[in-house]
């Protein structure tokens, strides 16, 4: 089970909200809303996505890395940490 | 009319695709997908959102700023540029 | 002359401060400072760099784009705006 | 000792290089270099800073989190992971 499984309902709720915000962007474009207002809403959606990502990352390190360390499996720790760092790099650069 | 109105259909299509990607994230979480794979998909959605934002920003400067400059309205140029810079700041920090 | 030339002293002062902050990072690493405190200082340097970039971008659009528009040179406006948007894309993704 | 201590020389070298790049920015501004070229150099410095940060973060998780987990100290794991996630949040938003 992934580290986030206890909070699945919360992530599902937040992602449904983000989905609604993206539909809101579609309406804004359809209604010729001023560009800056659309850009402001895009930043809000990006921030919401980032906070979902940070939550998943936190739980990944908290569970997967810690479990591998407790199991005394340094190779697995290395693999999981390398994956997490690469995921952070993508987040920082997306 | 906003600077992007000529490309409304393209923006609508891209935003519908992003909406579908967010629904994809919901399925991934619901199916207990490995955290790193969910994070990778979130970065993809963020990148897609950013490229929509960059397109809107480009057209905002290309039309709104240039029109105000051609109209010889420095106060309006200042206002629009300040808005665009603030929008970029939010993008960089979201 | 570039759009920022009136504010050269201010940019020079801010960049010297950032240079000092980077030397501060070197000292922190040399003195085995706790990783999280070094990361906090790196974020502060990144934010300072970003605000210099946003200032330069604002003045680029305010002067170069507006001047080309006033000069009735749509091809030059297109070129300068495309350059500015590409610069924003690099900022967002750096 | 922090997780990065084995690589201190490498981090020192990279930070000295970044310091040199920031001095290069000062020269560009002093010589009235075209705004877009200065912005391009700022993005290069930001990327270099981010890769130093990602290295420190990787080693923080690899050592501090894994050590606390091996020591069977869940409270310490929680504290260190929360700190790391907050550091990532600052990186993503700087």
TrEMBL record, chains A, B, C, D:
Keyword list, A-Z: Copper, Cytoplasm, DNA-binding, Metal-binding, Repressor, Transcription, Transcription regulation
A GO cellular-component term linked to this record: cytoplasm
CDD domains (UniProt xref): CsoR-like_DUF156
Pfam families linked: Trns_repr_metal (PF02583)
Main location: cytoplasm
Intracellular or extracellular location(s): Cytoplasm
Gene Ontology molecular function: DNA-binding transcription repressor activity; metal ion binding; transcription cis-regulatory region binding
UniProt similarity note: Belongs to the CsoR family.
Protein name: Metal-sensitive transcriptional regulator
Organism for this UniProt entry: Iamia majanohamensis
């Amino acid at each position: 089970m992934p580290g986030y499984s206890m909070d699945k309902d919360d992530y599902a709720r937040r992602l449904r909200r983000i989905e609604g915000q993206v539909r809101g962007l579609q309406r804004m474009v359809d209604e010729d809303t001023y560009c800056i207002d659309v850009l402001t809403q895009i930043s809000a959606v990006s921030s919401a996505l980032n906070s979902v990502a940070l939550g998943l990352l936190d739980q990944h390190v908290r569970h997967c890395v810690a479990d591998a360390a407790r199991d005394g499996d340094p190779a697995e720790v290395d693999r999981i940490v390398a994956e997490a760092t690469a995921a952070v790099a993508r987040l920082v650069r997306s």
